Structure formats: C-alpha cells, structure tokens
Amino acid sequence: MSIKQLEPGCPFGSHRVLEPAGALPQPAWRLDNDLDRIWANEILVAVDTLNVDSASFTQIKQQAAGDAEGVKRIILEIVAQRGKLQNPVTGSGGMFIGTVKQVGASLQDRDLRVGDRIASLVSLSLTPLRIDRITGVKMEIDRVSIQGRAVLFESGVYTKMPEDMPPTLALAALDVCGAPAQAARLAREGDTVVILGATGKSGILCAGAVKKKIGPSGRLIGLGHSDDKIKRLKKLGLCDEVLKVNATDALQCLRAVSGLTGGRLADLVINCVNVPDTEMASILMCRDRGTVYFFSMATSFTQAALGAEGVGKDVNLMIGNGYAKGHAEFTLELLRESPAIRELFQSLYG
C-alpha cells in the first residue's frame, strides 16, 4: 500500500524538525516521526535492525544497570520523546538495516527499488524513526532488533547490502566504516601509529587499514584494557605491539608509548574508545605536529582543545567524520581482503 506523498521538502530534512524552529535534524531536539506520509524527496524504509553507537549503548546499559528490559525501555522512551534515536547524554545514535518500502517521486532516478535491502550510513541521531516493537537486544554487540519504520532524506547516505556476506557481518563493519577509511587517508608509509581502543570493532578495522598504509617500515601499536580482547588482537597479528592500559590514565598511556618509541611518540594517534575522559591520553601520546584522530563519540572536543593548549602540545586535532566518500566500499573490501578480520567479525557479530 502506497504511503501519501507531500511536495519535496528540504534536502537536509529540516521539514521534519519540530523543535527548535530553524534547526537541522541532527542538532534538533525533536523530529516529526509521523511516517504515515512522506515528502517526495524521502525514502521510506521498514527497519528491522538497529546498530546503536557504542558510546551511546554503553551509557544506556549503565543507566539500565545491565538489564535488557531496561535498555528496551530507555530506547523506546528516547524515540517517543524525540522522534529519533539520539542519546541525550552522548548525543550519538547509530545506524539501521531495513527494506525499502517507498521511494519518493523526486528520487526515482536513483538506483533504488522497493524491496532493496539497505543500511543507513547516516546517524540515527538525525533519522526520523518510529519503533512499533523491540523484539530483541544483543547486549554484547550493541544490536537491537525491532519492528519499525524510518525515512532517509534526499541527502541521506545509504548502501545496498552486499550479497557475498551475511547481513549481520556487513552491518558490524558498516556501522564504523568511516573510521578505517579515514585512518587509511591519515596514515603514511613509515609512520608510528597508536590506536587507543584497538581491541574494539572500529579499532580492529583501523588496524587493518593502517597496517597496509604504513608498510614494513612503519610501526603499529595497539592499546586495550581487557585481557581477553588483547589476546584476541595479538592473535590477529596486525599490531607490532599490543599493550594493556587504562585509556583514562593519560600519564600511564604516555609512559607506555614513550617507552616503546624512545620518547619520539606517535605520528598518528587514533582514538576508538567508547568511554569519556580519554582526550589527554591521546594528545600526550602524539608527537608535536602529529595528528590525533578522535573517532570516539565519547570525546569532548572542549577537553581536547583546551587540554592540548594546557600541556603545550602543538598537535593536529581531527574530528572523526562518520562519512568519507567510498567508506562503505572501502571497509567491505577490507573484510574481503583480510580472512583473519572477517573470521573474527563473523564469530563476534555474525
């Protein structure tokens, strides 16, 4: 059954903003998630899977005291209140997988048809979403199964699900595909690179991408906090050294990397952690005029900017952008080229 279509709205979705007036969807407090009608430049999707941003899901689990029913309740409350899944504490969202139900009349020139399976590559923090029912929560991998609907705006980025791998495997990689694509842009041959949070999903993919770029003359140092996950990362053989550190202890991290590099520190530090207060560890591990790439949505950019100033570190601070041109294809190809990473992801997220 076709949903009623209105005239084309704003390409960026401001027509769905209820408050405050004049805002764009991501910073807006509340969106219109009445999905019984769509604008002519929107795509209506039946959503079955949400991959919640790691920082957001970690906070929600803590708020719910680790109870799955509590997690469901919090997610439903957020969406009911805001018309989108944007954690009010972290500000972040996640992404979805679903089936295209209707393509707006203004978007008929796209290579997209009703029935196509797609993954959104824009944040749930700006996506109008209605959840009719939550059917399951996988606490260990930040995944929520739902019955619901969402719309993508004209400017919204998405990708069709690949046919050569299970949807759950592709989803795990696509959820963080901006990180490895941008890490590969930043790393140079011969660089010393430190990945904070290297044992997690985005950290492992960044390690795979960086290892190819820095070559045999480069050095890759992976930092994590869990013994089991550190053991798993070592087994992958991507990092030259893997260390256990507390990412919120800036001086401990500095001592660890300074000791490994003879005081030279890192050319590039990539922050992939999902907890706050790791800005100074990242900054202190980086050499002067090096680059710190904050992919973590738990980052306070105020702390990063003022913290670097406070310790006299002349480093380039880069905000992690969830979008990089070709990032989905880049990351899926990384899985195809690395049997070890693919096997690990399949075991964890498949």
Describe it:
The structure is a single chain. The protein is α/β, with parallel strands linked by helices and 350 residues long. It folds into 2 domains: 158 residues, no CATH class; 172 residues, Rossmann fold (3-Layer(aba) Sandwich). The chain has 11 helices and 16 strands. The strands form 4 sheets. Strands 8-9-5-6-7-10 form a 6-stranded antiparallel β-sheet. The radius of gyration is 20 Å and the shape is globular.
Q: What is the terminal separation in angstroms?
A: 33 Å
The domain count comes to 2
Residue runs with pLDDT of under 50 for 5 or more positions: none
Mean pLDDT: 94
| The CATH top-level class label of the largest domain | Alpha Beta
Radius of gyration: 20 Å
- Helix tally equals 11
Reading side by side through the largest sheet, how are the strands ordered? 8-9-5-6-7-10
Summing up helix and strand content along with how strands pair, one would put the structural category as alpha/beta
- What sequence of helices (H) and strands (E) makes up the elements? EEEEEHHEEEEEHHEHEHEHEHEHEHH
Globally, the shape reads globular
Query: What is the helix fraction of residues, given as a range?
Result: 25-40%
Beta strands, count: 16
Estimated share of beta-strand residues: 25-35%
The CATH topology of the largest domain is Rossmann fold
Q: What is the second-level CATH architecture of the largest domain?
A: 3-Layer(aba) Sandwich
Q: Write the CATH homologous superfamily of the largest domain.
A: NAD(P)-binding Rossmann-like Domain
Instruction: Tell me the major beta sheet.
Output: 6 strands, antiparallel
